[in-house]
Amino acid sequence: MSFKERVRKIKEDAEKFALLTREDLENYRIKFLVKKSEMMELFNIIKDIAPEDRKETGRLLNEVKKAIEEKYKSQHEVFNHKPQDKKNSQDLTLPPFYANKGSRHPIAIIKNKIIEIFSKIGFIIEEGPEIEDDWHNFSALNFPDNHPARDMQDTFFINMEDQLALRTHTSSVQIRTMQSQQPPIRILAPGRVYRNEAVSARANCFFHQIEGLYIDEKVSFADLKQTLFYFVKEMYGDDIEVRFRPSYFPFTEPSAEMDINCTICRGKGCNVCKHTGWLEILGCGMVHPNVLKNCGIDPERYSGFAFGMGIERQSMLLNGVNDLRTFFENDTRFLRQF
Ligand code: PHE
C-alpha cells in the first residue's frame, strides 16, 4: 500500500468508527491519536517521500489528522459537557422532578386546628405523661374501685404492683392541672392514649385525644353548650346542626355526648351515619364535685365543664377517611393527600 493509500485507509476507518460510549472514544484515541498509532507513524516517515510528492501528501495527512482530532474533540465535549451558563442549560422539556418533601401528619393538622379554635377563646395547652398511675387515670376521676366503668376503657397495665398503666384518656392531665393550679383554669390536653381494643377500621390500640377543661366561679352547662357550639361551627361550618344526648362518665355529672349532622349526607341518612343522620363527635359534662374535691378545689365555690374527643375521628369526619388504621401505616400515598 502506498503512503497515500494508507492515509486514505486511516481516514475511512476513522470516519466509520462509531463513538457511542466513553469506551469507544478512548479506543478511538488509542487507535488514531497516540504517538504509536499508525497515523502518527506516517508523520515520522513522511521525510522519506520523494520531495516532489512530499508537499501534497503532507497536506493530505495533516487534513486527515485534523478531521480525526475534530471528531474526537466534539464527542469528548458531548460526554464531558458541563453547563457553563446555568440559565441557559435548563432543559425545559424534561419531565418535572418531584422532591419528596415531608408534610404535616393529618393528625397533627387536625390537632393544630382544634387548638387554634380553642386558643381564640383563651384555652392554653397542658401536657402530661403517657404512663400514668391508677390515681390520675381513674381514682381521682371518680372511678370507684372495681367499678365496671373501668372496663369502659380496657387498660394496658404495665406494672400491676404499682398500678402503672398507659393512660386511657388525657383526663389524667386535667387532674394534674387542677392539683397544681387554682381556678380560673382553661386548658386543652392533647395527646396519645392507649386502649386494649381489637384493632379494626374503627378502633385502634392507641389513638389521639384532645380534652378541654374549664373551671371558674359560676360555670354552667350553658357555658359548656355555647363553647362547644362555637367549636363545631368553626370546625365543621356554620350550617352544621348539633344535638346533645345524655350519657355517663364517672367524672362528669350531668354527662352528655354531642352529635353533629352527618358530614357526608348532611342529615339525610347514609352508611357512615348508619342512616340516623347524626354522628357522635365528643363526650362532655359538668365536672363532678368529687373530682374537684380530689384535686383540692372547693366545689362550693367553683364549677366547671370538661369535654374530650378523638382527633382521628374528627379527621375521619372532616376528610372522609373510612379506616382509622390508615393514620398509622405511614403510607405516603395516604399522607400526601392532606
Ligand atoms: N375521657 C372521656 C373518654 O376518653 C371523654 C370525656 C372527657 C368525657 C371529658 C367527658 C368529659 O372517653
List keywords for this structure.
2 domains, binds phenylalanine, 7-stranded mixed β-sheet, 338 residues, alpha+beta, single chain, 3-stranded antiparallel β-sheet, 12 helices
The CATH superfamily of the largest domain is identified as Bira Bifunctional Protein, Domain 2
Identify the CATH class of the largest domain.
Alpha Beta
Tell me the domain tally: 2
Major sheet: arrangement of strands: 1-5-6-10-9-8-7
For the record, give the distance between the C-alpha atoms at the N and C termini, rounded to a whole number.
77 Å
CATH topology of the largest domain: BirA Bifunctional Protein, domain 2
Number of helices: 12
Q: Report helical residue fraction.
A: 25-40%
Strand proportion: 15-25%
**Unique ligands:** phenylalanine
Oligomer: single chain
Question: How does this model look, in words?
Answer:
It is a single chain. The protein is of the alpha+beta class. The protein has two domains: 3-82, no CATH class; 106-335, BirA Bifunctional Protein, domain 2 (2-Layer Sandwich), CATH 3.30.930.10. The chain is 38% helix and 21% strand. The protein contains twelve helices and ten strands. The chain has a seven-stranded mixed sheet, with helices on both faces. Strand 7 and strand 8 form a beta hairpin. Helix 1 runs parallel beside helix 4 and helix 2 (22-32) packs antiparallel against helix 4 (51-79).
